[in-house]
Amino acid sequence: MGKKHSLLWALSLTGLGLLGQAALPFGNLTLGFSIIFGIGQAMLAVVTLPLLMEMSLPEYRTQLFSLNFSISMAAQVLGSLVAEKLRIFFRLILS
């Protein structure tokens, strides 16, 4: 499996895990979707850096890796906030 294909799988698993946690906030299902999310995040961490290294010039790699880390952290914080709001929204609809 190539890097780009692995990246697509990682993003798909991450998205599925987050949507599952938001849509089905019931005990074991939340745990299962958390595991799917964690697998996606692990794949993303393993695939992203080699892909960035392959597609960049050596003199820009430090800045590129730093920017990637900063954007990833900001996206995780904002994504967690949105996921919490979605979870509350789905809980109101489903109950």
Account of the 3D structure:
This protein has helices at residues 3-23, 27-54, 61-94. Helix content is 87%, strand content 0%. The termini are far apart. The chain is mainly α. The mean pLDDT is 88.
Features of the shown structure:
single chain, mainly alpha, elongated
Short structural summary:
The chain has 95 residues and is mainly alpha-helical.
Termini distance? 42 Å
Low-confidence stretches: none
Number of strands: 0
The percent range for helix content is: over 70%
Separate helix tally? 3
Query: What's the overall average pLDDT, rounded?
Result: 88
What value does the Rg take, in angstroms?
Answer: 16 Å
Strand content: under 5%
Element order, helices and strands?
Answer: HHH
Could you give the topology of this structure?
Elements: H1 3-23, H2 27-54, H3 61-94
Helix pairs in contact: 1-2, 1-3
